[in-house]
Amino acid sequence: MRKMSKMLGLLAGSALLGLSGVAMAAEPGLTDTTIKIGLFGPMSGPAQAYGQDVMNAAKMYYAKVNADGGINGRKIEIVEEDDRCSPNDLVAAVKKLVEQDQVFILNGGSCSAPVVAAKDYVVRSEVPWVMLNASGDGALYPPQPNIFGAMSISQRAVGGSTVEFAVKQFGAKKIGYINHDDAYGAWNLEAAGPQAKEHGATFLSESVDPKITDVTAPVLKMKAANVDVLILTTYAAPAQLILKKAAELHFNKPIIVAVNAIANLKQMVDNVGTKDAFKNVYIQELLMAKPGSEKLAWVYDMYKKAYPELSAQPGHPQVYMPYGIPPAEVVVKALQAAGRDVTRAKFIDAVEHLNFNSVMAGPIAFTHTEHAAQKSSIYFKFDGDDLTEVPGVFASHWTYKAN
Description:
Largest sheet: 7 strands, mixed
Number of helices: 14
Oligomer: single chain
Distance between the termini: 66 Å
Strand order of the largest sheet: 7-6-8-9-10-13-14
CATH topology of the largest domain: Rossmann fold
Shape: globular
CATH superfamily of the largest domain: Response regulator
Structural class: alpha/beta
């Protein structure tokens, strides 16, 4: 009888060990003392400036959390991959992090087209993904169960915010809008038109090829229509051509230059060729204040301390560096809220309940049906030399509605 009892006890113990093994197998990337995060972005290549220092900012934030004791008894372990802002490279990096490195969470992506390319795989994998600074609309709308992003802003929010600024700042009744004739442009247009209609403003849009070399026709169209304000949501090259052509054609209405991958305003002025083109230009900014200002000093101080040699080099920190803080905060706050017995499902639920202020213009906020966090911008008047902040925060009102 005693032998039988002992055997049953051993069997029960084996069963418990088996269940424990299954539980651990179901949640890769966790040990008693560590939690593994897959961090990826463009560390090389022509788009490196969009993400290298964004990744550095996330890493320095995670290092601070570890130095302060970690999260619920665990230290963060980072596995890094270079996605070069290439769809193929990003998908390969994600697959390696999930299948080979078996990370608990994905944290990465600085360019929209590559993150969209990885969407289906990540959804199938069920690994939580918190993007870095990609707008990533195509992976966020319709909302996916385990993908979160737009900590800087989504393209829908770009469109809505710029229109809100045009109406509130200039009283615009007729809004001109030049965007790309691709998915990127369609995303920001989707919110811009309805927000103009909400304010009773006429909305005149013109979509151009991102590689356009002659912008005479769209600028003439906007001038002939006598728009009250012109919004540009293109990349740097078309925006610079439009600014130059607008000056040549004596277009004297306010021009709002939205997020368009211009990392260096001095270079933009040099490329346009004349400061006269900037007599009435306004620049959208996604941070809560001017980069390098007192409100953001703690981020730059942390960067200098974490990367003393890099920060001494010209061009560092790169302009987008602070954008790496909010996604790292999302990861840390959700892990803290999920508790010691964290699972991926608990982590996802915790993210969907986050609402906090960070370094961006508006709050970082998610719900079960909204996985794109940030919808606000601030604006500066730019005369070709100096930036003067326009008071106020201007938010997009667009919300996703399932068909």
